Amino acid sequence: MPDVPDFSAAPWRQDDTLAIAQAGRALTYAELSAHAAERARQLAVKGLAPGQVVMAPDLPAWDLPIMQHSLARLGAALFPFRADLPASELTALERLVAAEWRWRPESGCLQKTGQCPPQAAGSEPSDVRVLIKTSGSSGGLKAVMLTGGNLLASARAANQALGLARGDLWLTCLRLSHIGGLAICYRCALAGAAVLIHDGFDAAAVARDLGGRPVTHLSLVPPMLARLLDLGVAPPALLRVLLVGGQAVSTGLARRALEAGWPLHLTYGMTETGSQIAVRPAIGQNRLDTTLAGEPLPGVELDGAHCDEAGRLRVRGPMVMAGYAGPDRRPGRGLEPGGWLATSDLGCLTAEGQLRVLGRADDVLVIGGVNVSRAAVERRVSDAPGVRDSVVVGIPEPIWGFRVAVAYQGDVDEAGLEQWCRSHLPSAGRPRDFLRLEALPLLASGKYDRVRIASMLKGLVLKASSGRPGEPPA
């Protein structure tokens, strides 16, 4: 395989190595290549042209890797979406990017949407090959555009950092409509490794496959890891990489994973960068600082302050998106001059060149004139004895600005955790309200549902503070 493969030649090999597997089904690369070629032929007959966008559901997950490689061969773009997405939101996405086609895997039907993106006279077909929905820092609906070059650069850098090679097996239970799941399929194809697909996260199913298959790589978000640890699932002997990202990892969770023998790798990235841009390999008990995300991947430039003065991170490199999509799918939207992407995260580079991520810039609460980092409080609370994980929110308060509240999982009761916080946290950032839960609510992506948790805590505060004046932070 050449050093820089042609994206349109995906899946880049045609041998008898295992390519994808799920439950009782499997395809070799020769079979996957044949399936992709035949589907590309059928889609072209239907009228699909280079540069056009096909929206496809992420279930059944088995179908999506075939569609990935088929569209790559045609020079068209894949826009995967959650199969359970409300019809109104699906229509909004379709209009946002002026997607021309929708794929229905249950019938094998490619349907025109009626959308027609504006095109400049004489313009070449777009080189965008994937669009991914994201909420962005503002919470509004956005779609990230990634070119074939972005996807290949990301896959090559990640494979180098993670040691992914021909014959390896990567289990993914991340939805393929998210970049964290979809990127694994490109990485495996580029390396000649196989992807073991799950239709979402089911802890018992993941545990069965870890015990019965030669899994070498596994990607999880922190709540998924916590669930496996709660069930006492042991890492398989062949597992070399447990990649955990998508949100901050608490020190307590990292410690539990390491004590159980998991080969924990921390990562940092986002949809706008085609997934990860930094990896911290195989952390050990002697360096449990989970704010460290490791060295930037090859080709990644970070415009961040050194750690005596953390600021908002800016990123540039070959995996950084072409831009946010509009109906014209014009590149550059959302990028600064020079191709820089301004993230919503606070971070810095250590003297050793490692990226330290300190939370989101919009996570700072001003309480009685004091700046309080919600992420820093969350990390500290998660270190408390008897706390397995926690989510901290700021509840608006008319006198002091905010009051800090925490929902958590663990063995310690609310009174015990409140006492610990009094002894270990400064007054302005100390939680005033505590909610102990059997399980923290999750989004369909597996991440914590912070909106729902905040609503639960607001209800708790409202009930407790009826008729009570604001409590000073000091």
TrEMBL record:
Lineage of source species: Bacteria, Pseudomonadati, Pseudomonadota, Gammaproteobacteria, Chromatiales
Protein name (Swiss-Prot/TrEMBL): AMP-binding protein
Ranges for domain AMP-dependent synthetase/ligase: 117-324
Pfam families: AMP-binding (PF00501), AMP-binding_C (PF13193)
InterPro entries: AMP-bd_C, AMP-bd_C_sf, AMP-binding_CS, AMP-dep_synth/lig_dom, ANL_N_sf, ATP-dep_AMP-bd_enzyme
GO molecular function: acid-thiol ligase activity
Gene3D superfamilies (UniProt xref): 3.30.300.30, N-terminal domain of ligase-like
Segments forming a coiled coil: none
UniProt domain AMP-binding enzyme C-terminal: residue ranges: 377-447
